[in-house]
Design brief:
Length: 191
Amino acid sequence: MFSLFSQRKSKNQIAQFLYDSIVHQSRQTFFYYDLGVPDTVDGRFDLILLHSFMVLNRFEREGRKADVLMQALFDCLFVDMDRSLREMGVGDLSVPKHMKRMMRAFKGRILAYEEALQKPNDLEAVLRRNLYGTVEGIDSGVLEIIIRYLQANIENLRKQPWDDLGHGRISFIVVDYEEKDRTKSYTGMVA
């Protein structure tokens, strides 16, 4: 029984490391200043969802052994969203309504990104509708950079050993959009 409790605690800690890495990567200034993602609550939320999608997409490749960690990561995300809403002054009675809306957005975006990966020509429309939903006239060149970023990180995460991910170690690639053949790497928190 104690081993089950410590294993759960360990999975929750690992999920928190992963979530912290997702949030850290989502807060990189180049998304907002260089790539025009709105620096708003919605823009930040959408970037967190995009990065969460990349990680969850990788976890799905592991099958059932990743289920507990996937659920723990989902829980971290929505505990943080609940806390953020309360810090912004959303009242206790309104928080559940906002959380339902955020969960629907999460599910919708995960499904949309998953479907768009199967049809890469659809990625631009999906990103335009979600990540840039409040931006008028977003440049196709910017969307191309985000698409390359997403595809490079999906591939990068596929190559990362499960032992690393399963212990909370994750890395994201940042596509160098001024010199298309170079990339930079960011390694997240290490458990």
